[in-house]
Amino acid sequence: MTKRGTYTSVIANAPVYLIIFLVLISIPLAAQFPLRLSPNHRYLVDSGQQPFLIKEFSAWGLIQALSEADESAFLDSIKLRGFNTILVSVISNATSQMGGNPPYWQGISPFQIEWDFSTPNEIYFQHVDRFLAMTREKGFLVLLVPCYLGYFTDGSQGWWDEVRSANNSPDKMRTYGEFLGRRYRESSNIVWVAGGDNDAKDQDEPYMQALISGIRSADDQHLWTGHFDNTSGTFWSTDNPRYRSIMELDGLYVWKEISLGDRGPHYRAELEQYGKGKMIFQLDMSYEHDVPHYADNEDPRWMRRKMYDGLLSGCAGTSFSSGTLDNQCYWFKNWKPLMNTPGMELANNCFKLFDALPWQNLIPDTSDQVLLNGRGTFGQLDFACSAKTIDGSYYVVYIPSGRTMYFNLSAISGKTIRMHWYNPRTGVFMFIGRVGKDPHFGVVTPDTDDWLLVFDANPDWQIPD
User: Fold this and answer.
1) Percent of the chain predicted with pLDDT > 90
2) Which CATH class is domain 2-10+361-456?
């Protein structure tokens, strides 16, 4: 027997007060900073012990490029679209990319003496102070890069060549680190990020080690992750042996999925890393329509697959940055038109689903105990990733393409189990029906596109509108 769902509106005939209630409960509560690792070190929790799913926007040049009024407007805009985290540089020197005449903010240099990192400019960092206070008030976690080194092959978009200049030294980098550590140790909403498209090895290592040592000497409160050179195979924060010991959050950064080689696709790398026991998350992933214009950033289905596969393969967060072929948001040259791109809707639909689920209890499942047949071949892009909650009350499958799948729900708790399709393109749930623990039944996707199938045995679960 196969079952095919038809759409039903959960609240179409509900009274107004109930609709308002359902909308309110679908909005995640603002985090109570600071965040800490959960007891099992799988995800972040706030000071009220509420799980925090990282929904990150890569906003590299934000501190340097925009006025404070525009910074506030940008944060408000992405918050409305479900984001709760930003990846941003304290100082930006990407003259070939960023708006606002980097490294200056409103004409103000971050340093009193050019490329002497031991001479921070108080006026510039008062702006950084206000920015971080603004993000905290708006409920954002900030993945904060103290010095984005950049690709060593391109001196126009990072600090590596300025760091090496005659005006600077490792001792001066340590002074800069101590300054940052003292200044921001009480900023409750930051995670420090080492590197920045660079493994910080060889000639650059003494500078990065000194910077990190300086920060940590004054600030032992904040967690660390790392963003390194994925083109050299350093995909995970812990892949870099020089800084592995301080990487408490293991972030995945892959520009082109093909570069993972035998470690890919993404879900394979994520499942392998999940097995090591640290918190993992997608640190810096899909850039809509950005170079080199591979399917990773051009094909919406490809981007959806990366997000959903990751969150069903142990990741405690995902990331995105919007753009068009001639305008990337992280440049901050013309960001406002990029708040309503197809990719922004794609990301918001993903957040909508996982905000409604007890995602922190999902355990990746690659077995054939529940999903008997139709998953596909492990290691192929078309493989269907799935996860089950610890108590067996939810089972979620991302199906990359249309197919028939066969299930055995005996491992799902509860006598009656609801089934819904979730359309990742529209953010709409489609009720299929209720089933018992039928040992063997089939489900056919509504069409040939990608879908999610959600089983739940929780009578109190409210399906978001």
Assistant:
1) 87
2) mainly beta
